[in-house]
Amino acid sequence: MRPLFSPQRGIRALSAVFLLCGGIAQAEPQHGIAMYGDPALPPDFVSLPYANPDAPKGGRIVLGEGGSFDSLNPHIRKGRVPWMLRFYAHESLMARSYDEPFTLYGLLAESVETNPERTWVEFTLREEAKFSDGSPVTVEDVLWSYETLGTVGHPRYLGAWTKVATAEATGPRTVRFTFNTEDRELPLILGMRPILKKAQWDGKDFTESGLDDLPITSAPYVIEDFEAGRYVSLKRNPAYWGKDLPVNRGRANVDEIRMEFFTDSTAMFEAFKGGLLTSNRETDAAKWDSQYDFPAVTNGDIVKSLIPHKRPTGIEGFVMNTRLPQFADWRVRQAMIEMFNFEFINDTLNGGTLPRIPSYYANSVLGMAQEAASGQVADLLMPFKDDLLPGTIAGYSLPISDGTDRNRKNTRSALKLFEEAGWTLQDGVMKNSAGEAFTFEILLSQGSSQHQAIIDMYVAALSRVGIVPKITTVESAQYKERTNGYDFGMAYYRRGLSLSPGNEQMNYWGASGVSEPGSRNWMGMNSPAAEAMINTMLTAEDQNEFRSAVKALDRVLTAGRYVIPLWYSNESRLAHDKNLRFPEHVPMYGDWIKYQPDVWWYEED
């Protein structure tokens, strides 16, 4: 555990430094902090540009969620938690603006201060900040939250905490974190940590909390009611301390956010058509075009809205587990990609309207070029050229089929790759030299008819080259358990990526995830080049170096052939009650975290 100093000891230590040095660095408290450059909004800004400061308060929004839940604590590894609780039932020192790549403005903290090298960061709490029970948010709460989350909390919090050398109170309302490594993102990462009430957990095991402890938080919403596995109701706190802050104006407008849980997407859609839900996010383009013609849509009670965005595509598809010998060879993974007849599947399910994900950071300024690497991107990759897979530097693009069911050209290419990797067709079965059949398990979660339809077509194609995988469909809890333990051959995989990737990338692609359970490195990749690009991202001193590092990482990931990519859209499809409104200005992240229902409001005609 890193040193966690008491407030008294922290004040003494800081005073001694000032006496010796006459100050620590030329730094001043600021209203916000950006990853590069200055925040776009001035200290006297009225509201975030994508919020309506005049939005009325009232009404409710009812959203559908898949699966179930058995915990209300989103900050520990144990249990299944409604995802929105992490973002709507807790607050952090700083709040993010989603109209900038990565900028934070003061929330619980009235100011942030750091030196030019960003080797430390200091936050000053607002004197008026309070928890929902009326008690003040204190420095002691902040320090306890950081230490607890960083040592026994969810894995997402652990990495940054290992980079904190000291955490100390430097005054009645100020707390300072000093870092033990060079990482310019750390002041921002720490600014987004949730702050919990220490006294609530006295005498309790934080890691075992489930449904018995309703969180006492400082957020605009509190959990008013719930039924395990069925629904959660969040009610706007009329006594919320921060409702008049500029960063909050025009946000948290609806009185109630209700989450209803369903075992499958079909039941959820029927609930929306029947009026139980008031908004539905549709990811199936063909369904959006063909099945949203029910009476509530045709009579205008339900509105179909398209929300554009400029964020990376991320990756969505079917990941191959390279921990298994079947997928350890890149030629096998490329062969599996060749056998996936994207054009035929896309035409069948989407009418061919959606483009394929070409790389992890496509659709953004961070995406790789498909041709050969050049400039700073090439310079970053060259030290690893002997270990990089073909196409990483020279250029890589996904295969394109002729659009017919047989996919003959790509099938021939796949058979050649299988043969080069030691697998050949023997009596109609793909086998190795020892006569062992090429087989694996495809793991799916219950409730997605589209994923099942995709896999059915894929398995039919694989059968033509003598591969018959086992398809296993499990409920959400078992799916989480098995994927946390990497107990699958292939599984549906989705990772949303932002315009400001940073520390979380090591959890996504870092080598520790090969053996440590619970990471997001489901593919089991172990790439020194990927880790080097991530480290360059974290220490880059200008935007050009940062973007070059991300583009180089994008090449390592894409040419790694770990995932069979599906499609993407540069706009979100939201069908909703006509009385649910949103501002005309859409943030650059579009329909993302803290958009719906955060800046939406309810207003009847």
Keywords:
605 residues; alpha+beta; five-stranded mixed beta sheet; four-stranded mixed beta sheet
Query: So what's the oligomer here?
Result: single chain
Write down the Rg.
25 Å
> What percentage of amino acids are in beta strands?
15-25%
Unreliable stretches: 1-25
Please tell me the overall pLDDT. Answer: 93
Measured distance between first and last alpha carbons? 57 Å
Which strand order does the major sheet show? 18-17-19-14-20
**How would you characterize the largest beta sheet?**
5 strands, mixed
Shape: globular
Helices and strands: which structural class?
Answer: alpha+beta
Counting DSSP E segments of at least 2 residues, the number of strands comes to: 23
